[in-house]
Write a structure and sequence with these properties.
alpha+beta, Arc Repressor Mutant, subunit A, Beta-Lactamase, Enolase-like, domain 1, three-stranded antiparallel beta sheet, 13 helices
C-alpha cells in the first residue's frame, strides 16, 4: 500500500526548490509539473492558499506566483530537505587546500576561501580567542616609561607581539626572571588558564608574595588577557553582489559594513560556538538586522576535547541548502582533522 502523501508538504517542497533554482515567483502550473503525485492546478492553488494562510509562502507583488517566507524556508530545511552528498571533486579540493602542514592561521584563511569558492557565497571562519591558545614561549623587553614589549610564541608556530603598560618601570633583569618563571612552569597551558591561576595565587597569598611573583602576576595578567571576542576571516563578499537586485543596494551596503566591522558577525559566531552542532539562521532568526534577508549555515570545528571555533556560509535566503549544508559540514570536519596535533 502506498504511503499517504501530505499534499501541503509536497507543494511547499516543490515551490521552494523551484524558487531556489529559478529565483522567480512560482505558479500552480509550474508546481504541477514538479510533483511526483499528479494534481490539478486547481487543487494546487487551493493548497497554496492554505500555505499562504499559514505564513509559509507569500505573493511578492501582483504576480500569480508565490515565494517562500522565512517560516517556509525553516519548514523546508527542518522537515523536507533532501541533502546531497558533496561531489568527490569538491571533497578532494577541500582536502588539498586544508593540509595539516599549514599553520592554523593559514588553514583558517584557506577554509574561508574554499567555502566561498565552492558555495559562491561569503565564507567565514572564526579564529579562536587568544586565551585558548597554548603558550610555547614568552619574552619581555622593557620600553620607555612603564611600557613592556611582550613576545608570545603560541601553539606550534604563531608569534604575537603586544605592548602593555605596567604600574611601574621594570628593568631588563626583572622581566627576564619573570619570563624564565613562566617558561619553566606554564609551557603548554592555555593563556586564559595561566592568567586565572596567577590571579588566584595573588588573591590567596598577596601579603607573603615575593617581588618576583608580583612582577610575574602583573606582566602576565596583562600579557595573557585575550580580547572579548575572537577574530574572523571573511572571503567572497563580492559573491553577494547579486543580492542587490533582489533586496536593494541599501540592504547590501549594511551587510558589507557588517563584514568590515565584524563585531556583529563575531557575536553571532560566538553564539554558534556555545550551541551544539550545526546551526542554521534564516532571515530574522539571527537577531541582526543586516542579516534579515540572509541565511547563515555554521558548523563547529576543533579537537576531540574542545570546540575551537565555527565556520559558516552567509548568502541569500534563496540559497541551495541541499548543497551548502553538507559543504559546510565537510569543511569543518577536514579543518578539524588538519588542526589535530601530530602524534
Amino acid at each position: 500500500m502506498r504511503p499517504k502523501v501530505d499534499r501541503a508538504e509536497e507543494v511547499l517542497k516543490a515551490l521552494v526548490e523551484r524558487y531556489i533554482r529559478d529565483g522567480e515567483p512560482v505558479g500552480s502550473r509550474a508546481i504541477a509539473e514538479s510533483l511526483v503525485n499528479a494534481a490539478s492546478p486547481a487543487t494546487i492553488r487551493n493548497v497554496m492558499a492554505q500555505l499562504e494562510q499559514r505564513g509559509l509562502i507569500q505573493s511578492p507583488h501582483t504576480s500569480a506566483g508565490r515565494v517562500p517566507t522565512a517560516l517556509g524556508y525553516r519548514m523546508f530545511v527542518d522537515s523536507l530537505l533532501t541533502v546531497a552528498s558533496p561531489a568527490l571533486e569538491n571533497v578532494d579540493q577541500v582536502r588539498r587546500r586544508l593540509l595539516p602542514d599549514k599553520t592554523p592561521q593559514e588553514l583558517m584563511g584557506e577554509a574561508s576561501e574554499v567555502l566561498s569558492e565552492l558555495t559562491s557565497m561569503a565564507g567565514i571562519v572564526m579564529i579562536p580567542k587568544s586565551d585558548r591558545s597554548s603558550l610555547r614561549q614568552v619574552e619581555f623587553l622593557p620600553l620607555e616609561g612603564n611600557r613592556v614589549l611582550v613576545i608570545l610564541v603560541l601553539n606550534d608556530r604563531e608569534v604575537q607581539n603586544r605592548i602593555i603598560t605596567t604600574n611601574r618601570h621594570y628593568g631588563e633583569s626583572e622581566l627576564q626572571q619573570a619570563a624564565n618563571y613562566l617558561n619553566q612552569h606554564f609551557i603548554g597551558n592555555p593563556l586564559g588558564a595561566i592568567r586565572e591561576r596567577l590571579l588566584q595565587a595573588m588573591q590567596n597569598d598577596k601579603s607573603h608574595m615575593d617581588s618576583l611573583m608580583q612582577t610575574v602576576i602583573e606582566v602576565a595578567s596583562q600579557s595573557f588577557q585575550g580580547p572579548e571576542l575572537a577574530e574572523c576571516v571573511v572571503s567572497g563578499q563580492s559573491n553577494l553582489l547579486t543580492m542587490a537586485d533582489e533586496q536593494g543596494i541599501h540592504r547590501l551596503r549594511e551587510l558589507f559594513d557588517a563584514f568590515q566591522r565584524k563585531r556583529d558577525l563575531l557575536e553571532l559566531m560566538d553564539q554558534c560556538v556555545k550551541a551544539d552542532g550545526m546551526q542554521i539562521f534564516i532571515g530574522q532568526e539571527s537577531g541582526y538586522e543586516m542579516l534579515d534577508e540572509c541565511s547563515l549555515v555554521s558548523s563547529p570545528y576543533g579537537t576531540e576535547d574542545e570546540v575551537l571555533g565555527v565556520l559558516a556560509v552567509i548568502g541569500p535566503t534563496r540559497m541551495p541548502y541541499q548543497r551548502v549544508i553538507p559543504m559546510v559540514d565537510l569543511t569543518a570536519k577536514i579543518l578539524s582533522a588538519a588542526l589535530k596535533p601530530a602524534n
